[in-house]
Amino acid sequence: MKKILLLIVSGLLIACMAGSAMASPASSTLINADTQEVVSNEDLYLAVDNPLRLQLSVVYTVAESDITYDYGAAVTPWPNSDGNVLGSASDVSVILPSPATFTLPKITEGTGTFTDPNIIFVTRTSSAPSDAVYKVTIGDEGFFLTSASTNLYVPEFPTVAAPIAGIIGLLFIFGRKKEGL
Predict the structure, then answer these.
(1) Residue 124 pLDDT level (bands cut at 50, 70, 90)
(2) Statement: the pTM of the whole predicted model exceeds 0.70
């Protein structure tokens, strides 16, 4: 009985710590074409008239292979650190390849990864206010552009608390197991 309980609790802790990091089908990611680093869900500084070169990468399943993936782009001014929305969508230009589509190669098992070889260019114009923040969405992925050169990265609470709670829980369970309770 104790082993079953230990197995269930351990499984639940692992599932809680994994959270949204578990893979989902047809998930897209934006990759910096120059550095090959993932930029999805990131805060990026972009200097004026210095284009960011991106590529869209998709992880897909057998059921999604051989379909055409069509994507667009949107720019939305976002509240900055003071809570103010500065600038307009025209301060950032996104140039998509023409056409902004690709067909996922056919696979017969497992998952496949396809990176569109076409480059997406994102540029911030000189008319952008100095403390403006923009949310750029390409396909179903997005990231934040800021015109301020400093970023403060603070992890979300569950990112820190879940692993700590899991370790404390495992220590408690194994400590009780050594005591023979």
Answers:
(1) confident
(2) no
